[in-house]
Each structure stands twice: as structure tokens, then as C-alpha cells.
Amino acid sequence: MTRFDIITIFPKIFDSYFNESIIWRAQKLGKIKINIVDLRKFSTDRHKKIDDKPYGGGPGMVFKIEPLARAVESIKLKAKSQKLKTKVILFSPAGEQFNSKMAAEWARKYDQIIMIAGRYEGVDERIKKIIGNWKLKIENLSIGPYVLTGGELPVMVVVDAVSRHISGVLGKNESLEEERLGVGVPIYTRPEIFKWKGKKYIVPKVLLSGNHKKIEMWKMHHKRKMKREK
Ligand code: SAM
């Protein structure tokens, strides 16, 4: 089982995505566990404040170090007693670009992935040193070359992409596209001919031929074409 611990100031954001479809089923089957940690619970401030102005000036707010350190430590202490192999992920548009290879490797290597979903201007940099002192693997991750308002979507992307690589998460009909001629290959379903506003839209003949060798070659051709067009 892989455990995902998610530190956030918006715990409810995850409800709908994690409680539907494959990710929901993976939790029910005990293949993954998702633990949402509300950062505000670790604030000692009377008003549960977790952010403050940046030193050196500038707009926006920054996640304060103390509640963050407390939150990660509380998760880590539980993990230590269970001797889990843990990785910690911080998110930033300037981080290393996430990809399928990382997802597969992390699914294989780690029992626990702790993620900090940042907001505003980000999180106090010193959290990296604190986590480093605990000798935990830490990654500064980007899910793409654009700036989002928060780390919640990146968290969902990582949970989804890593979970797909955990044995038993995908059913037979959903087997890993990465391992077959799935990604980028055009796909069709019934009807064979779709008539729409005076025009006919047809399925390529080869897919109806029943000739598996020819179908495979057709798929490979499209996959190569897609690579060339990139
Ligand atoms: N100034 C911050 C930096 O340079 O990392 C970016 C702040 S961004 C507005 C707020 C938060 O959204 C980040 O802390 C991060 O958690 C998340 N975020 C935004 N874009 C992202 C991306 N492309 N990949 C991963 N996380 C992202």
C-alpha cells in the first residue's frame, strides 16, 4: 500500500476527485491511503494564522515555517514507527518537471509520499532544510510550465499518476496505456458510421477488419506520426 499525506489549507478541495472512480476504488481495495492534513490545525496562533508577509518585501503571503514543520513532523513520527520509506514533495512552477517515469519509480520505491500544497507566494524556504535534516528524500516538483494559484491540483495529479502504477489499482480494462499502444493513438467506438447534419463520419476500415497484425501496424504508424509532429 502507498500512503499519500497531503498538507493543505483547503482540505475540502480534494473530496470530489478522491471519492470517485479509480482513486476511490483503490482506497476501498486498500491499495492506497489518502490522509488529508489541515495545516491550520498546526498553528499555535489564536486565529489559526498560517501565513505572513515575505521578508524583503513584495506582494502576497508566505506559509509560515512553524505550522509547516509541526505538520510534517507529526506525519513523519507516525511513519517512523511504521518504518515506511518516505518521500516529501514541495511544489513550484520552477521545480523539476513531473513525468510518467517518476510516477512509476515512486510507486515502486516509496510506501509514503508527503506533499505540501502551497498557496499565495509559496512556503518558507527553510522547510527544505528541516526536512533534509530528517534525512528524508525531498523533491521540488512542477507539473508544467505555467503558474497555478495553488498546489492542490498538482497534488491530485501526483496521486493519480502514481496510483496508476500500483499493482491492482487499474482493472483489466484500464491497463496501463503507457505499456501498450494506447497513448496518442486515435480511438473510436460504435456506431461505425455517424451521420451528423448531412455528413458521414466513419471509423477507419482497418479497425473493423479483425486483422490484428494490420491493426497493430496502423496504431504504430499513428504513434510514430504523433512523435514526429511533437
Ligand atoms: N512563487 C512561487 C514559486 O516560485 O514557487 C509560486 C507560487 S504559486 C502562485 C502558489 C503555489 O501553487 C505554489 O507554492 C505551488 O504549490 C503551486 N503551483 C503553482 N504552479 C505550479 C506548477 N506549475 N507546478 C506545481 N505546483 C505549482
**Class by alpha and beta content:** alpha/beta
Strands, count = 9
Task: State the helix count.
Answer: 7
Ligand species: S-adenosylmethionine
Q: Tell me the count of domains.
A: 2
Q: Which H/E pattern describes the elements? A: EHHEEEHEHEHEHEEH
Q: CATH-wise, what's the superfamily of the largest domain? A: SPOUT methyltransferase, trefoil knot domain
Mean pLDDT: 94
- CATH-defined architecture of the largest domain: 3-Layer(aba) Sandwich
Give the CATH level 1 class of the largest domain. Answer: Alpha Beta
Radius of gyration: 22 Å
Measured between the Cα atoms of the first and last residue, the distance is 36 Å
Question: Which strand-content bin applies to the residues?
Answer: 15-25%
Are there runs of 5+ residues with pLDDT below 50, and where?
Answer: none
